[in-house]
Every structure is written in C-alpha cells, then in structure tokens.
Amino acid sequence: MLSHRPELFDLYAENHMDLIFSGHAHGGQVRLPLLGGLVAPDQGFFPRYTSGCYKQNGSAMFVSRGLGNSIFPVRVFNRPEIVVVTLKSPGKNG
Description:
This protein is mainly beta and 94 residues long.
C-alpha cells in the first residue's frame, strides 16, 4: 500500500495491510538528538512515525523522510533521504 498518512498505521495493521510505504512526516522536520522528530503534518509535536520501519501485527510500514520541506523551509539534524527496499520471495535464497 502507498499512503501519505503514516499516522494511520494502526488502521492499516488492523486491516491486515502487509506492506506500507509512506512519507508526509518529513522526518519530523527538525530532529532533536535522542528524542527524534519535533513536529510533523497531521501528527503534531513529537510525532510517532517520522522515518524508518515500523512493525505491528504482521504489517510493516516504511516511512521516508523524503526530499522536501514542510512547515518551514529548513531541516535541522534531518537529512533528506530516498529509501530503497528490496523485496524477496520467502522461498528464495538471495
């Protein structure tokens, strides 16, 4: 599934979505060491889903920090990224 709303991950997992690719959080726009993202669209302050892989009930969601900016035109401790994911069949060896 492609989703622009990572904050709905509970709903996706509840509906048995195996794999979700998402963005929109811009990595939290400003990241604080040890705390993570400061603010993200539709998630507010200290957002839960800002970048990386999240797993729940057999669902996996990859959230990209993306390349652009959001609320204000500056990224702090938050480098832009393009995520590359390699999908493999469960029965394949490499």
